[in-house]
């Protein structure tokens, strides 16, 4: 008999990422949570490309791997991994031999990038880090962008370096040095491609550019100069070295403009938006909690005239090819699934990882010509066979303004004549629910809830107009979409008891949970996570507050009345639903003060509430936080709901 999903199952899940292949074997990262160390760890594993046989591990057991890079000559793997307190660079030959640790410094190493001929390996690091002190020291802040979620107060006085390592001689040379962060994404014998903030000293300019840094001493070039105010990155050289494929947006609506694929000519600066004719989003904005250490590389070259793009459409992550001569678009990998990571082996083969609503992570190979897929490894096969996993039932309904809105309903694992249901609101808001494995939703379904997931206006994968509809309108049409979607789910499953409705969500989903808390009494219990309750204080305390607030609400700090109008805290006297507030103590995206302010307001209003603070936890607690606290969080959500559900006579 299949077992229901439990919080502790997080230790059993094995997500796969960063697949690369030398044409004989596929190398990839396999992540898992280490219960003893209370950390997430990853190894480099490989299988035969033809049939998935001959499993091997390539990284040391005591090194948790972050990034993986295969040399273009298919002879070596470079990778970064945690050694003690820092991330170091390693190199391992594929014809035998142990991994060699290349760096031994006291600063983290990131971003291994091979030159296209395989002669050099680039990596990045920093210098100028202040030495630890036994005594407290002051922090002097003089910039608006002084903090970042997951990092805390940003360090000052650092120098950012790109170092070229010649593996035959072991020589290391600094080839690029800057006062501000940058990221190398590709290189050849003539130069390297990197991205960075275009105007890093202007704290109100949020344009990022892809640059060509030539080695002949000539001037660096901004390759997206034709759309200089946009946000661009992930640049990749074409096989002939003449063009750069990149990912980015024109920023005509900050933070919400669709991300497209672009191609720039290095010599002429000619820039083309490849996806302009189609109303689609390039990139992964899918809201799932099961994936780890993805490459984040969403564009690639198949050959000199063909590009491969990962597109987010109606809750799916599809892989498509586009011919640059004819603009012909061809679906390569589609269907009700999420293509989470991929790389091009040659012009006939792509290796990729995928996830579905009921499968955690598979490694597969695609024959581009025939369209045939070969499954290579599923480390979660036993887990999936032994557990009761539920596929969401797609449904559509008319939301606000008669818009078509999409959602999925996960019925409870064990049917009941009457049962509770949870409305789960995604974050963002510019993300989307869809066809990937979501452990938390499976857990709730296993606990007897029907789970309602909806993509209200403001979310991704439904076109530009849909995504921008929430700007300046938080809590309006999106709130109506969610309420109508809840009604539609009740019609879809007549066994849902309307007196047993619960609601939860995090980040934007936390904001919406707070808004629902203060604008309707139809839910019997609520859990708000890493939420926004007060846009006025959020403006000055969040790591993104001073620019995200004007972007999303169309108001700055001068219009306090409008910021207050959009704040759930302003309506707290209307709240009646018992609500649990969960917040990470190190959350700088939605600072802990947001949860605390809402807690005080609810207590003053006489609402049953509880504030739970998670130590050593930032905004990413539910996805990559400490394992024991991720489990604690899931249990507390379930306990709060169960404690406040009415006792129903099932006869």
Automatic annotation (TrEMBL):
<dbReference type="InterPro" id="IPR011659">
    <property type="entry name" value="WD40"/>
</dbReference>
<dbReference type="InterPro" id="IPR029058">
    <property type="entry name" value="AB_hydrolase_fold"/>
</dbReference>
<protein>
    <submittedName>
        <fullName>S9 family peptidase</fullName>
    </submittedName>
</protein>
<dbReference type="Pfam" id="PF00326">
    <property type="entry name" value="Peptidase_S9"/>
</dbReference>
<keyword id="KW-0378">Hydrolase</keyword>
<keyword id="KW-0645">Protease</keyword>
<dbReference type="Pfam" id="PF07676">
    <property type="entry name" value="PD40"/>
</dbReference>
<keyword id="KW-0720">Serine protease</keyword>
<feature type="domain" description="Peptidase S9 prolyl oligopeptidase catalytic">
    <location>
        <begin position="437"/>
        <end position="645"/>
    </location>
</feature>
<dbReference type="InterPro" id="IPR011042">
    <property type="entry name" value="6-blade_b-propeller_TolB-like"/>
</dbReference>
<dbReference type="InterPro" id="IPR001375">
    <property type="entry name" value="Peptidase_S9_cat"/>
</dbReference>
